[in-house]
């Protein structure tokens, strides 16, 4: 795991900025195939409770070229994780950054399916609208 991954996972925007300004690879992967953006979205629910810097961290990673389409070994994208945790703001950022709302993980689950399973209605509505806009 890289320093960028640790900082992203913890929502430390200032450290993320510093690392990226000094050449950290935004697309580096850990042993599970996760990028800094995936780890940030995986842990985002914790950071939202602790501080308001999480959405800014995701936004900054996207601005610096993090791919919203990168997948973990299980085939989940950052949008899958944000939807699973009901993080509407991050879902919105990822969709604006080009994330595919209909992408399926290795189990055949889309971000919309995960949002519905967890009863995250606001995220589910956003994702349904995004899927319909693709058609």
From TrEMBL:
InterPro entries: Ankyrin_rpt, Ankyrin_rpt-contain_sf. Keywords: ANK repeat, Repeat. SUPFAM superfamilies: Ankyrin repeat. Pfam families: Ank_2 (PF12796). It comes from the Eukaryota. SMART domains: ANK. ANK repeats lie at residues 1-31, 32-73, 74-106. This is Ankyrin repeat-containing protein. It comes from Nannochloropsis gaditana. The lineage of its organism: Eukaryota, Sar, Stramenopiles, Ochrophyta, Eustigmatophyceae.
């Amino acid at each position: 795991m890289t320093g960028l991954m640790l900082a992203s996972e913890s929502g430390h925007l200032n450290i993320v900025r510093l690392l990226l300004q000094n050449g950290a690879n935004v697309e580096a992967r850990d042993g599970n195939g996760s990028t800094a953006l995936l780890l940030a979205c995986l842990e985002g629910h914790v950071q939202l409770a602790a501080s308001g810097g999480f959405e800014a961290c995701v936004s900054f990673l996207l601005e610096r070229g993090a791919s919203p389409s990168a997948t973990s070994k299980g085939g989940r994208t950052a949008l899958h994780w944000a939807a699973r945790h009901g993080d509407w703001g991050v879902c919105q950022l990822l969709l604006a950054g080009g994330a595919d709302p209909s992408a399926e993980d290795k189990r055949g689950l889309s971000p919309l399916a995960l949002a519905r399973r967890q009863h995250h209605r606001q995220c589910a509505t956003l994702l349904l609208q995004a899927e319909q806009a693709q058609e």
